[in-house]
User: What shape does this take?
Amino acid sequence: MASILLQSPVLKPRSVIRLEGLQRRYQMGAQFIDALHCVDLEIQKNEYVAIMGQSGSGKSTLMNIIGCLDHPTAGEYWLHDERVSRMNDKQLARTRNMAIGFVFQTFNLLPRMTAFANVEVPLIYSGLNRKERLGRTNIALETVGLKDRMQHRPSELSGGQRQRVAIARALVTNPSILLADEPTGNLDSATGLEIMGLFDKLHSLGNTLIVVTHEQHIADHAQRTVRLSDGDVIEDTRL
Amino acid sequence: MLIVETIRMSLNSIQANLFRALLTMLGIIIGVAAVITMVALGTGAQRAIDAQMAALGDDILSIQSSSRFSRGVTHDSQTLTTDDAKALAIEPVHLSDVVPEIGGRLQVKYGNKNFNLSVVGTTPNYPLVHGFKLAHGEFLSAAEEASRTRAVVLGSEIPEMMEVDAAALIGQTLQIRSISFEIIGIYESKGGSGWRNPDDDLYIPLSTSQFRVTGNEFVGTISARVSDSSTIPLAMLEIERVLRREHGILPGKDNDFSIMNRKQFAESRAEATQVFKYLLAGIAGVSLVVGGIGIMNIMLVTVTERTREIGVRKALGATRGNILLQFLVESTILCLLGGLLGLALGASVSALLAKYAGWQTVVTSSSAMIAFGFSAAVGMVFGIWPAKRAAALDPIEALRYD
Ligand SMILES: Nc1ncnc2c1ncn2[C@@H]1O[C@H](COP(=O)(O)OP(=O)(O)O)[C@@H](O)[C@H]1O
Ligand SMILES: [Mg+2]
Assistant: This one.
């Protein structure tokens, strides 16, 4: 960590994510809806950002664009100083695979596969061999404290355990950014706290985290809060 | 590397829904089974004809009465007689053996069992020219021919038909049209030959047949062996000249008989069988294509059902190519498994047809390979569209799909 910083004698820390005038417009019949209106945002390495806002304010839309799952209708998205809009399908897939770990509110695990196999999926697309996959998958499952459940299918796991599997899957390729869209939304508050504890741990290990939530006590885990309203950033506070 | 994982993934997803996979494969299973069975039947028929052709030899000419056409009516009359056979035996220099025969289905009685069998009246040189060998007893002799003896030699399958031990039949009597005949010999099996099985026939002296059964001088067929197969055209001319004279046919009038080289005949039959075989295989191939359309249909449903899975995989780093490969491999594996099951089914049906229907069937490795390769191709061709649709899905739309 320190060595990398020493090697780059740039005064201003390089942004991991830089959004400029980002717009995402949906057309509903003759009507246009701007899920994102004009968003400017920069996120640095090892930041822990909470994105807040009311339902429909554009949080998920923003996360999907940052996760390279969706495209803005206008504006520019720089990821590690690379323009995402210039990436082709292969490069986008590689970015989702290597640079980004995405945790969904609804877990999105593959139901017919074991926890282990679910966590292994991104590594298959990375092209790692069996042995490397085995090692990395075990480490990721260990990090989320689920090694003893790795042969269970999602249906045999509790909500909190499923979300841990999903987090392990997001971690397994060692991405530079971890994105979580309302990761505790489908969990009871005790389990939600457990998951947030896990995120705190990941942050302390040096990960860059962006977590969407509309609960203040969840946002309190982060060092920075970005508040959205009707597709615009209306507040950006650092602790 | 990735392909191994992809295959494993496909096998897992097939296994997860085994019954549906089986239904999906049904079209291919039936298609491949049909191709295998049809080709097995065709090949079997062809082998039979080949064997027959090899047995025939190309030096035997077959002379038959041909239907006469006069006053706008065809007369299906018999024109060949014993005298014709005698004349042919004496005169033409290019013929070595001449064998007249007359046959028909007659009532045969042995003990209290009744049969309707083909009884051939012929001369003693018949077994020599047609390549019969004796299993028990004796051949018909010239003396028996001369004295119109009521003696009979049996085809090899007759004892079994009568449920008697072959050797024990020698010296016994049976009734042909209520006339008693002594069984003097039993032939070795000559092997089935499609339209007529000589092992199912009874053989009696020609003179006996004409005197006691048909009551006239006519014969059905005269077989003539050509002394040298290079002189077949000359031999045919000689036969024509002799018979026209014997029958008193004026110049310019048509022959009332036909001369046929049996090998040529068999060859044209073999060709027809070949065409028939390809026709059958073609029809079966169409069912394979229909099976492929079934696969495509189910794969499209599968892609729709698994839209969310596709979204998740894309979010985790799958490229379009990865998704395309996954669904293509899945449909190809389905087709290959279907092909394998179809192969087993086709081989079993062929074996059953051979055993219970008595049809000769031959499952060749080449027909198996072709059917198998074809089903793999069907899987790829009909899998490509669903796989392309899966690959083209937008990740966020796919993730939102419910
Ligand atoms: N696929 C879509 N088509 C049309 N409108 C959409 C679509 N997705 C989101 N929206 C609209 O965009 C706005 C922001 O949605 P979203 O980003 O999901 O909000 P949040 O996650 O903050 O609740 C909402 O008004 C929503 O109705
Ligand atoms: Mg949302």
